[in-house]
Design a protein that fits this description.
Pfam families: FKBP_C (PF00254). By secondary structure, the chain is mainly β. The protein has two domains: 162 residues, Chitinase A, domain 3; 139 residues, Chitinase A, domain 3 (Roll). Helices cover 6% and strands 30% of the residues. It is built from four helices and 17 strands. The strands form four sheets. Strands 9, 12, 13, 14, 15, 16 and 17 form a seven-stranded antiparallel sheet that branches. Strands 3, 4, 5, 6, 7 and 8 form a six-stranded antiparallel sheet that branches. Strands 1-2 form a two-stranded antiparallel sheet. Strand 10 and strand 11 form a beta hairpin. The longest helix is centred in the middle third of the chain and has 7 residues. The protein is elongated. The two termini are 28 Å apart.
Length: 335
């Protein structure tokens, strides 16, 4: 079972907390340097930013002037630079402009990317070599003002490069380069499809005008001994599979009293994670496979597959949890 973080109004409690990159590179925390955080609030740190499209860095140093990135969008990006490359400030630039729509404030992006250790030139992770895809919601709060200025001048289909840092579990800051090819903008940001056929054994779900779910009340009777999944809406998109970079909306309630404890809808930002990466509770890890994008499901998760039986170990310990999840996107690994 993953090591979930504490409830945090800034982020979903179901994920285990990771120390993220301190620039827009924080779009994913999939590389191996990330680790469970013991911070009191568990919040991810996105303190830095990136540069304007011309490559001027945020606060000093034009580190990317020493980096050459290949421009063939049909092939894995290659980077040429002399290592060790010192990253003294966050930096970013567009390598190849895309021919798609201009990226806007609030867009949720999906990209394919490569991470390279700037100190050694070693490739740490690559979608082209079986690594997961990635992405980010483009807002000032998530990626910083300078990075936001870069992304809102980019177009879908662009290749970008960024320089930044990752703090490892040893507390050391590692200098990294990220190259990403922006594949698409996630849309719509709610489930869309045909009505499912729920069993009626669990509380009714109603949807607001924006698609946000509401639960009719608490669970009557005993909860299940293993996670139960009910299909509320069946989407018409691709099917989720292990290794996917999943993007979704969700709300979670305590089954005992029907009280809401977390919601991506309330935060105004969809949630993404790598399926099978061990970064979410077991009830999520094992029950979001083989779903069509656009689907909405209810997950009724017993304590053993959520936060355990001990309320002293976690404030949701001992609780059966109910989630309603809208599957918005499933970015596959390289086939």
């Amino acid at each position: 079972m993953p090591c979930p973080g504490p409830t945090d109004p800034k982020g979903p409690p179901l994920i285990r907390r990771r120390k993220l990159l301190t620039t827009a590179l924080a779009a994913t925390a999939a590389i191996g340097l990330a680790a469970c955080s013991d911070d009191e609030n568990g919040a991810a740190s996105d303190a830095g930013g990136a540069s304007d499209a011309g490559g001027a860095s945020d606060g000093g140093g034009d580190v990317l002037a020493a980096v050459t990135v290949s421009e063939d969008l049909g092939a894995e990006p290659t980077l040429e630079f002399t290592s060790p490359l010192e990253v003294t400030a966050a930096d970013a630039e567009v390598v190849v402009p895309g021919d798609g729509a201009t990226i806007k404030d609030g867009d949720v992006l999906i990209w394919r990317h490569v991470y390279v250790d700037a100190s050694t030139g070693e490739t740490l992770q690559s979608w082209w070599k079986g690594g997961p895809a990635g992405g980010v919601q483009v807002t000032v709060d998530t990626i910083g003002q300078a990075a936001f200025d870069v992304f809102t001048t980019m177009t879908v289909g662009s290749r970008f490069v960024m320089a930044g840092w990752q703090q490892g579990s040893d507390g050391q800051a590692y200098s990294l380069l990220q190259v990403g090819d922006v594949d698409r903008v996630v849309s719509p940001l709610r489930a869309k499809g045909e009505p499912g056929s729920p069993s009626g054994d669990y509380p009714e779900v109603t949807l607001g005008d924006d698609g946000a779910p509401a639960l009719a009340g608490p669970l009557e009777g005993e909860g299940p001994s293993k996670t139960e999944r009910e299909l509320l809406i069946e989407g018409g998109g691709d099917t989720t599979r292990a290794g996917d970079y999943l993007t979704m909306q969700y709300t979670g309630w305590k089954a005992s009293d029907g009280s809401e404890f977390d919601s991506s809808w309330k935060r105004g930002a969809p949630f993404s994670f790598v399926q099978g990466g061990g970064s979410v509770i077991t009830g999520w890890e094992e029950n979001l496979l083989d779903l069509k994008v656009g689907s909405q499901v209810m997950l009724v998760i017993p304590p053993a597959e959520a936060y355990g039986e001990d309320p002293k170990a976690h404030e949701l310990g001992g609780e059966t949890l109910i989630f309603v999840v809208d599957v918005l996107d499933a970015a596959h690994t390289q086939s």
